[in-house]
Structure formats: structure tokens, C-alpha cells
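TA notes, week 10

Several of you asked for a full example with nothing omitted. So below is the full record: C-alpha cells for the whole chain, then the designed sequence directly under it. When grading your own attempts, check the secondary structure regions first.
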């Protein structure tokens, strides 16, 4: 019996969207294996952004993979998708089975410690499937993940565990922002995979 079926998972958002947290979806041994494989074998690059005309390079590293060489543009920079690795295909299959959705691309983030985070934002780029599911897998350090409603400023948060899965879907990106707040207490790295669907290509 699947103890993590949708019927037993509560929507974390009170309205205007759906966020489901499945908790850990693999053993600690499996999670450690994937963390090591991803940390050592993904083609990590420092993320770049153009903000108010200024070119910024972050300490955080990113990578972009997909079914084909998708272009993905955000923060006024464009990335071209790399071909899937075996580990990413295994994790994509797991995410698809758990969330009952399909994905054709994955944006990966590597946070070296708690000082690196992500500001409030929504994943609402035009090339993404509107109201499509975004599945998020976490490996490494446990970190707080927060949501804020764009109109009411209502907030909610949770701790994302090593080897855990979260999905954001329906109108979440339209009405809610999310972030990974920095913290000086976390010394270990965290890897986050966000499987998504590019609709316009």
C-alpha cells in the first residue's frame, strides 16, 4: 500500500493553489547515493541574472536538462537544456509516478550552505505550461521553504527533508510567491531538482 497517496496528503495552501508535500520518498541510502551522483556529475554553472541592467553572477550553481535543447529564459538570461543523465531520468520517473504528472525538463540548484538562498519569486515564465505541475526533489541539508500570497501576504512554510518530494500545481504560480530563505546555521550543501514542463517550443 502506498502510504504517500494524494488522499492522505493535505494541501499546504489555504486557497488559490495546490502544494502537496510527500515527505521522504526514498531510503536514506538512496538519497545519499543520488546526492553524491548529482553533486559530482551534474554540469554545474554559477547562475547569472541581469537586474536593472547589471550582470550578476551568484554563488549558487544551477544546471538545466531536458528532453530536447529547450531554451529557458529567466532573469533576462537564457540557458540551453543538456541531455538527461541516467540518474535524472530515474528521478524524473519517480517524480512522475508520485505526482501523477509528466515533465520534459529539470532545473537544478546547488546551494553550498545556508548563506545561499532564493528570494521571493514565482515560476511563471511564459514558456512553462500554464498551471502545470512543478515537482521538487531535495537532497542534502534540510532547509525551510516558504510561500507568500501575492495579494493577502498570507504566508506558510515547511522544512524540506533529505530525499523528499514536493509538488506545486494548479494556480499556485499565479497567486503565490515562494522562496528559500538564507540561514547562517546550515553548513552543509543542498541540491534541489525542479521538474517542469516547457509548453512553448
Amino acid at each position: 500500500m502506498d502510504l504517500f497517496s494524494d488522499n492522505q496528503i493535505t494541501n499546504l495552501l489555504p486557497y488559490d493553489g495546490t502544494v502537496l508535500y510527500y515527505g521522504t520518498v526514498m531510503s536514506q541510502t538512496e538519497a545519499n547515493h543520488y546526492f553524491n551522483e548529482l553533486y559530482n556529475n551534474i554540469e554545474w554553472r554559477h547562475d547569472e541574472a541581469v537586474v536593472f541592467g547589471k550582470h550578476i553572477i551568484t554563488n549558487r550553481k544551477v544546471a538545466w536538462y531536458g528532453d530536447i535543447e529547450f531554451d529557458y529564459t529567466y532573469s533576462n538570461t537564457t540557458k540551453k537544456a543538456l541531455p538527461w543523465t541516467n540518474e535524472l531520468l530515474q528521478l524524473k520517473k519517480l517524480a512522475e509516478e508520485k505526482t501523477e504528472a509528466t515533465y520534459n525538463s529539470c532545473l537544478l540548484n546547488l546551494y553550498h550552505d545556508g548563506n545561499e538562498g532564493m528570494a521571493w519569486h514565482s515560476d511563471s515564465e511564459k514558456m512553462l505550461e500554464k498551471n502545470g505541475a512543478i515537482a521538487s526533489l531535495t537532497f542534502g541539508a534540510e532547509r525551510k521553504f516558504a510561500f507568500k500570497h501575492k495579494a493577502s501576504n498570507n504566508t506558510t512554510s515547511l522544512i524540506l527533508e533529505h530525499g523528499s518530494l514536493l509538488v506545486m500545481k494548479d494556480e499556485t504560480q499565479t497567486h503565490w510567491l515562494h522562496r528559500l530563505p538564507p540561514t547562517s546555521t546550515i553548513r552543509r550543501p543542498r541540491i534541489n531538482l525542479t521538474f517542469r514542463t516547457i509548453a512553448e517550443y
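Helices lie at 28-41, 86-99, 172-175. Use that as a sanity check on your answer.
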